[in-house]
Amino acid sequence: MSRIAPVAIKRRYYNIGVFTSSLIITYSVYVLLFGWGLKNGLFDARISGNLPIAIDSAYCFIFASLSLFLSLQNKSRFKSLLSRLLAVSVFTWTILVMIDNFTSIRIPFTIGMSPQTSFCFLLLSLSLYHLNKANRKFIIQGMLHVVSLISSIVIIGHLLEIPEFYRMSFVPMAIYSAIGLFLLSVSSSLVNRNIGLTGLFTGKLIGNIMARRLFIQMALVIIALGYLRLLSHRRAWMSPELGIASITVAFLVVSLLLVWSTSKKLNAIHQKSKLAEQNFRTAVAAAPYALLIADRDDKILMANNETRKLYGYKKWELLGQNIKMLIPEKLHEDYSVKKANFFASPSATKFDFDDELFSKKKDNSEFPVEIILTPVRVNADTFMLLTIIDITSRKHHEEIIKRQVIQLQQKNEELEQFNYISSHDLQEPLRTVSNYISLLQEDYPENLNEEMKLHLSTMSSSIERMSRVIRSLLDFGKLGRNKKLVLTNCSSLLESVITDLGSLIKNKHALISIEPNFPEFYAYETELRQLFQNLINNAIKFSRDDTPPHIKISCKRKKGFYKFEVADNGIGINPANSEKIFHIFHRLNSDEKYEGHGIGLANCKKIVEMHGGQIWVESEPGKGSTFKFTILKFKT
Ligand code: ADP
Predict the structure, then answer these.
(1) CA of 458 to the centre of ligand 1 (A)
(2) Is the sign of the CA dihedral 295, 300, 301, 307 positive or negative?
(3) Dihedral (C-alpha) 458, 464, 470, 473: value to the nearest 10 degrees?
(4) Residue 538 C-alpha to ligand 1 middle, in angstroms?
């Protein structure tokens, strides 16, 4: 069964097909409606020696053009079926015309179509029927070329007024029929434009450019010179000998001029391609990486200086050799599979191996590499351009970084451990001192004078403060331990924070506005809660005496993260301190007025960083502060 291939026709050729078929349909309809009635004008069907386009030719033109138009669309089975049906109608009609012309059987309504025209329509309809069949391309193209040849002979015959050409010993073919058949056959042949003479004229290679330029110009010149020669013969302007000699000279001169102008054009194109090749070679030679080109049989065709330097080979030791000499034996099999995949669908690819990829130098030492394969096309063949990057030093640095990260993690753990143990151990003596103070206060009140009592109570409150600081330190150290990301509804989390801070909010007459539609996202819920609590607490705490606190909380969704803002109308912060306040125990205000330990914002920073974000403040003294932080959009 023949396969129907989709018509992947270039836009330009599609447009030519559509334009031609529309033009021919328009003209044929015009002929059918008025042509036979009109005697004058450009569209007079009887132009060219009273030779009209036959009525059945006009029908055949309409059907054939429609068939071409539909097969160019080729979108639906219906269109392709209709297109073939139209081609079959033309075919059937031409067979009937031929029976009428060449046998004694008379077929009604076969009016005027010449045998040459019917033969051309026969070939055209067969071609249109098979136009989209991949395995009949050559036959189709051949038939279309025959139609183009016959119709062009007829056109030349009309132009030079040689009846033998357009008559071909039969009933003559009208010039309009010839033009129509020529246009239809040429535009149909564009569907398989790489085949036959159409390929010669539509190709992009230098030979095609020459064929296009030279043939079209030559054809026009030859027709013009032939016409002049005939004219001179008919009007007896000169003797036949002089005529032939003149036309020979004229043809030689014109051919020389045409060849000259074409060769100039071709030279310019050649120059350009040579320059491009030269630039490519220079770029390859000057590249900071090892670049080499190999064919599909692994033969090295080109290697730049860097390749030679990297592998320690001389140029002649590489060229023509098998590329596998640069690959360790254990990777040969893997390489062959990757190479086969690359040539199966050539596109720029990174040579990915499960393990690290190594290459082999001349001294057999192996080193880690990264290889990128790029297809390079030369004529019809594809080669592979290998970009080889020596990643020895990168690997070395990665190793150092990896080791440092591990060391850092260990140190961090040690530090957390130390923090935990020391805070824990510090609590113990503090508790003892505090107990003894209480003991002194309770058991020996008569032995203590007022001054001693005051000293003891100062000691006691200092110990209390220190104990709180140690507890905060302990909490800071614990932050993020056993953490787990959970889907957190930010709106309800904020609501519960506000409920918890209820009495503070009430006492300070604070107003808290939260933007609607806070997102739901993956977060460390307890820590996130603490983050909001600290920020809102600070915003209320550091309010101005004369203004009740007004806090606005908002969230914006950005690409890859959320950005939150907690803005207040409080005392503000000097921008010089905007970084310091996130350091542990760093406070800007007196203990008397604003109670605190200077650990809240350090906690906030740690929590935000746990969420892959950043925190910062924008503020001016007396004008309020806006704390901003980001949180990564975690996938789980
Ligand atoms: P604490 O609140 O216990 O003092 P923080 O670490 O929470 O400790 O804050 C550090 C310092 O940053 C505070 O002492 C204060 O000076 C300043 N600060 C924090 N939040 C605000 C705010 N909303 N407005 C003004 N200053 C602030």
Answers:
(1) 25
(2) positive
(3) -100
(4) 6
Q: Closest ligand 1 atom to the C-alpha of 599?
A: 6
pLDDT of residue 94: 92
Regions of the chain with pLDDT less than 50? 1-7, 37-50
Say which amino acid occupies 385: L
221 close to 261: Cβ distance less than 8 angstroms: no
Q: Rounded to whole angstroms, how far apart are CA atoms 369 and 331?
A: 13
Q: Hunting for tokens 């690819």 — which residue is that?
A: 349
pTM: 0.50
β partners of residue 371: 388
- C-alpha–C-alpha distance, residues 131 and 191, integer Å: 8
How does DSSP classify residue 608?
A: H
Q: Which two tokens stand for residue 397?
A: 């640095």
Closest CA to 182 of 353, 61, 333, 316: 61
308 close to 291: Cβ distance less than 8 angstroms: no
Query: What is the amino acid identity at position 532?
Result: F
What angle do the packed helices 175-189 and 55-73 form, to 10 degrees?
10
Q: What is the pLDDT of residues 475-498, one digit of tens each?
A: 777 776 667 889 999 999 999 999
Q: 296 in ligand 1 pocket by Cβ < 6 Å?
A: no
Compute, in angstroms, the gap from residue 415 CA to the centroid of ligand 1: 26
User: What are all long-range contacts of 450-459, with beta carbons under 8 Å and residues at least 24 apart?
Assistant: 459/433
User: How far, in Å, is the centroid of ligand 1 from the Cα of 514?
Assistant: 21
Which SS3 state, helix, strand or coil, does residue 114 take?
coil
Q: Note the pLDDT of residue 465.
A: 82
**CA end-to-end span of the chain:** 54
CA 547 to centroid of ligand 1, rounded, Å: 18
- d(CA 458, CA 548) in angstroms, rounded, equals 33
Burial 174-194 (b: 16+ CB within 10 A, else e): bbbbbbbbbbbbbbbbbbbbe
Beta-bridge partner residues of 563: 556, 630
Cα–Cα separations (whole angstroms), residue 304 to 80, 290, 298: 54, 6, 17
* Residue 266, both tokens: 């071709």
d(CA 159, CA 166): 10
Count of CB atoms situated within 10 Å of the CB of 291 = 22
Residue 385 backbone dihedrals phi, psi, to 5 degrees: -100, 120
Tokens linked to 203: 């190709």
Instruction: Give the pLDDT confidence score for residue 75 in this predicted structure.
Output: 67
Q: Ligand 1 test: best mutation among 530, 581, 592, most atoms within 8 Å of CB?
A: 581
In 502-604, which ranges are E strands?
A: 511-514, 520-523, 550-558, 561-567
Sort residue 161 into left (φ over 0), alpha (ψ -120 to 50) or beta: left
Q: What is the pLDDT of residue 47?
A: 42
Atom number of ligand 1 nearest to Cα 568: 23
Within 8 A by CB and 6+ apart from 560, the residues are 632, 633
Which residues have C-beta within 8 Å of that of residue 135, sequence separation ≥ 6?
Answer: 2, 3
